Amino acid sequence: MENAKISSYQLFILIVIFVIGTTVIFPLASDAKQAAWISILLGMFCGLPLLIIYCYLNRIYPDLLLTEYCKKILGKYIGSIIGIFYILFFLYGASRDLRDIMELAPLFLEGTPISAIGIIFMLPILYGLYLGIEVISRTGEAFFLYLVITGVLMIIFLLFSDAVKFENLLPVLEPGWDTIIHTTINEPWMAPFGEIICFTMIFAYLKKPKSQIKVGMAGVISGGLALVFIHLLTISVLGEFTRNQSIAPLLKMVQKINLADFIERVDPLFLIWLVVNDFFKVLIFMYAAVIGGATIFKRSKNILIIPFGLITFFTSIFFAESYTSHMAQSDIVLKYVYPIFSVYIPLLLCIVCFVRQKINKIG
Questions:
Q1: Is the pLDDT reported for residue 201 higher than 80?
Q2: Residue 330 in contact with residue 96, Cβ under 8 Å?
Q3: What is the predicted pLDDT for the residue at 159?
Q4: Where does residue 114 rank: exposed (0-12), middle (13-18), buried (19+ CB within 10 A)?
Q5: Other CB atoms closer than 10 Å to residue 214's CB: what's the count?
Q6: pLDDT tens track for 7-22
Q7: What Å distances lie between residue 37 and 64, 126, 195, 229, 240, CA to CA?
C-alpha cells in the first residue's frame, strides 16, 4: 500500500466518474430498446448490495486491500492465486476501456492508427500511476467541475434546440419485463456497477473509514442516476433504433444541437468530456492492478507500471480485431467472467468471514 490518504469527497468523485466512464459512450442495454434506461436503473439497484459486500469486507480489514485480505481469509497460497487473477481482471478491464477510446477517437481523427491513439492516451495514465492515489484523486477533483458544467450545458442546449422528443420513449415497456430484467443481468449490472470491485483497492486510503458505505452509496447512486438520465435523453433524441445502431450515440445526439444557427457543432467539446471519463476509468482499473501487484509480488508499484502498461496496451489491440468483435466479446465477458470477480468471490469471502466471526464468538 501507499502511505496516502484521500477525502470522502475525492472518493465520491472518483466513483461517480468511474460509473459514468465508458458506459455513457456506447448503447448500453440495447436489447431493452426504448426501456434501456429502466434496465440501467435496475442495474444500479442490483449493484448496491454488491457495494455493501465490498464495504463489509473492508470494515473487517480496514487497513488492507482486496489482494491482501484474500490471503488473510483463504490462506496464503489460495489467496495469492485469487489475488493474481484479480490483477489480470483489472488489467483486462483497463484494456477494454482503452480500446473503447481507441474506437471512438477515429471518428474525429480519421486515418490515425488506433495504436497511436492508445500510446498517446496511455502516457498520462502511466504518469498518474507513478504519482499515486492522492494526485489521482486531486486531479479527479479538478476535472469534476468541468464534467458537471459540460453535462448541464448539454441538457440545456438540447432542450432549447427542440431536439428532445419524449414520444420516442413510448411505449415504455414494449420489450417486456422479461427482456428488461434479462438485459439488466447481462449488461448494466456488471458494467459499470459490478466494476466497483476496483474500489476495494482504494477504500483503505479513506481518511474516515466509517464513511465509506455512505460515500460509496452516494457515488454509485449519483453516477447511476446521471447514467440513466443521459441514456434516457439519448433515446428521446435519436429514437431507440438509431441509438442502438450508432457506435457513439451520445456524440450523434449532441450533433443535433443547433441554437439559432449560432451554437452548433459542439461535439468536439463533448468528445473531450468522454475522453476525461474514459481516462479516469482506465486509470482506476490500472491503479487497482498495479497496487495489487505490489502487494502480491512484494515490489514497489513503480516497478510494475511500465510492464502492466504494456500488457494493457497490447491486450487492447490484439484481443479484438474490430469494433464488432470488441462488442461481441463484451457480451461474453459480462455474462460469464465479470460475475465471478464482482459477485461470487466477494460473496465467498464475505461468507467465510461471517462464519469465522460466529465460530470465534462461540469459542
A1: yes
A2: yes
A3: 85
A4: middle
A5: 13
A6: 999 999 999 999 998 8
A7: 36, 34, 19, 7, 11
C-alpha cell at 82: 485469487
Q: What is the mean pLDDT of the segment spanning 195-223?
A: 95
List the grid coordinates of 247.
Answer: 457506435
DSSP state of 169: G
Question: What band does 363 get if pLDDT is binned at 50, 70 and 90?
Answer: low
Provide the 8-state DSSP code for 164. Answer: -
DSSP secondary structure letters along 303-350: HHHHHHHHHHHHHHHHS-SSHHHHHHHHHHHHHHTHHIIIIIHHHHHH
pTM score of the predicted model: 0.95
Please return the burial class of 211, using the count of CB atoms within 10 Å of its CB with bins 0-12, 13-18 and 19+: middle
Provide the strand spans (E) within the chain.
258-259, 263-264
Q: Whole-angstrom Cα distance, residue 140 to residue 159?
A: 28
The answer on pLDDT for 330 being more than 90 is no
CATH code, 8-362? 1.20.1740.10
CA atoms of 92 and 316, how far apart (whole Å): 8
Q: Residue 19: which residues within 8 A CB-CB, separation 6 or more?
A: 192, 193, 196, 219, 220, 223, 224, 226, 227
**CA dihedral for 326, 328, 331, 332, sign (positive or negative):** negative
* Per-residue pLDDT at 116 exceeds 80: yes
Cell numbers that stand for 183 in this block: 438485459
